[in-house]
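input
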Amino acid sequence: MKTKFFIIMLLGIPLLGLGQEVIPKDKKVSQLSFSLLTESIAFPFSRYLPIHPGAELGITIRETQREHSLSQWDVVAGGYYHEKLETGFYLKGQYHYQKYFFTHLGVDLTGSIGYMHTFYPADIYKHNPETGEYLVANQMGRPHAIAEAGIGLTYRNSSPIEPFIRQSFMLETPFANGIPVIPHSFLKFGVDIKL
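output
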């Protein structure tokens, strides 16, 4: 039930942008983005090693272009591998605001909420009370709600590919018994591909 609620909530987030001035109707998807990332259980700008690799793919579904700024509603899917903690896969709705400075610099602010499913990176055991043995259990993973905020820089140019670097901070809940929330920090290097 919780999983269905999170998925319905996540899919409804991009619909919030439908009432805004949008891009022409014949251009439904305006941009794709792809990034490689590293995850850390830390606050932003505090730790970057060891590297816990991951990737993200985003699709812009609504866009409002102004003279000195850009507002976008995105759907983003991604994941990461943290060998001692968890492997996580997520789907989120994201609002992305970019303010233009000078000719080629865009300052990015992002906010998102979504759903994440995690798997413990080792075997999980369960106790058999009849025999007293511990047996390897099937791992179905755990569902989580996530909220993320980020800041970054984009190199704006006339080509369809614009590189960016972003730092974001995510809260995952529930994490474990006795630990309701755990922080994640992501450093992302990627490109926006204009369609």
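quick obs: The beta strands are 31-40, 53-65, 69-82, 86-101, 105-119, 124-127, 134-137, 142-155, 161-173, 182-194.
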